[in-house]
Amino acid sequence: MRSLTGSRLDWAAALLLVLATGAHAIPAFRRPVATLDEIIVLDYPDVVSRGATPNVDFYTAYARLGYDFLGVWYRVLGYTLTSERLAGLLYQVAVVVGVWALTRRFGDRIAIGSGLLCIVLMPTDLTAFAWLGGLALAVWSLVLVRSEAGRLSWMVGGLLAGLSVGWRYEMTLVVGLALLPFIWRHPRAPFVVMGGLAGFMPTALHLLDVGGAAWDNVSGRMGVNFQLEASSVPVHVYLGLAVGSTALAGIAARAFMCRTREDWAWVLVCLAVLPQALQRIDVYHFGFAAVVIYPLAFAAGMDLARRWTDRLHVRLVASALAILLTVPALFLVGWVVTASTRFETQSIASGSRTITVRADRAEATQALLDDVRDVVPPGSDLFVGTDQMGRTSFNSFPIYYLLSEDYRFPSYYLELAAGVAERDRSGLSDDIRSADALILATFDPEVGDRLFPFAPKGFTEHNQTVREHFEQVSTHGALTLYVRRS
């Protein structure tokens, strides 16, 4: 009877966290598409499903399996913004329930508290970030690879670890460090290794197919990572980084005290995800690391409070936990503010596809789409960029999604890869010259200075190519249509 009751409580707790994650995500479904990240996870899986090879046919710094997964997801649920966001919700739920399962060894209350902390620190939108997909697989690999688990569990855990690298190459570091305590001098280590090699096999085959192109793509983006304009970063992100880094000390303290493989794995996985918060210091990247570090630190701290019975140590742990919880509290306030903000949105359509955008963009975007269909013959090659391609810039309009049914987008730079595409002789001018028409968005230089303060600028090749080979047809709001000179 006890085991049956325990099983029911486990299912109830997991369901509670799933429902809480869904409730946290509800406001995000109402928001318009507005970020380049969401446009990428809408566009790239469709490009791959049409036969393109990442790193060869188009630039990307991410691994292939995540695109393959979303491509299948879109074929099943439909190629829509809603289905993309459902994939993002799936990633978030998998991380949250995985963190809960990881902390269950400390008891139901601590595990549920850890899961709720994870929810609060999640990004407030539902973009199907490759990082969250890979992180979900990495967390569940740790759930399955436990000291008391059997061989099959260890092998499946290794399989998930290997698959995670197919979402983000950085997961090699995360799962490599996290599973190291279980691999080191353990009789079941070969089962983790075998599962890991099997999971990594699709990514290995892709890397062999593309050669050094994958490394070139990834290394090219390193030039714009770890950049920071201090004044543009919210104060609670600085506080979160300071508290989160200090929280690692609590996890490490428990590891030194208990000396179990699980505890050392927690320390190493937190160290491995911390660089994600530092590569671009903003709310999103902080959350990508905090959803692991904070819940595990909370669970470790609560367990230490139970182990230490003297008043001094209890007060010390209680104070540390109070400081730790201030950051999720600030994020909860931010979520409430965001959830209560009303977004003026409007749907625009092109062919059989419809998408929701900001109302102030809708009329201009729809007018430009109509001009493209009037002026540019179906089947023509289109290029999407900005009016400032001599510096790091981006076009956050969903042009590919709305026009790819009837037009081709053969560009290597489907999006203007920051720190790479803007450089002279990057190949971007070849993309421009080969196009039949261009759709360029006005880009605010102040945005580029804030997001990429140290990125190189002042290149002239690409903008010169536009002037030499194309003529302006029409302008609607921030969008301008160019066609090749006759």
UniProtKB/TrEMBL annotation:
Q: Which organism is it from?
A: Nocardioides astragali
Which keywords belong to this entry?
A: Membrane, Transmembrane, Transmembrane helix
Entry keyword annotation includes Cell inner membrane: no
Ranges that cross the membrane: 86-103, 115-145, 165-184, 191-215, 235-256, 284-304, 316-337
Q: What protein name applies here?
A: Glycosyltransferase RgtA/B/C/D-like domain-containing protein
Lineage at the top is: Bacteria, Bacillati, Actinomycetota, Actinomycetes, Propionibacteriales
User: In which domain of life is the source organism classified?
Assistant: Bacteria
Q: Where is the signal peptide?
A: none
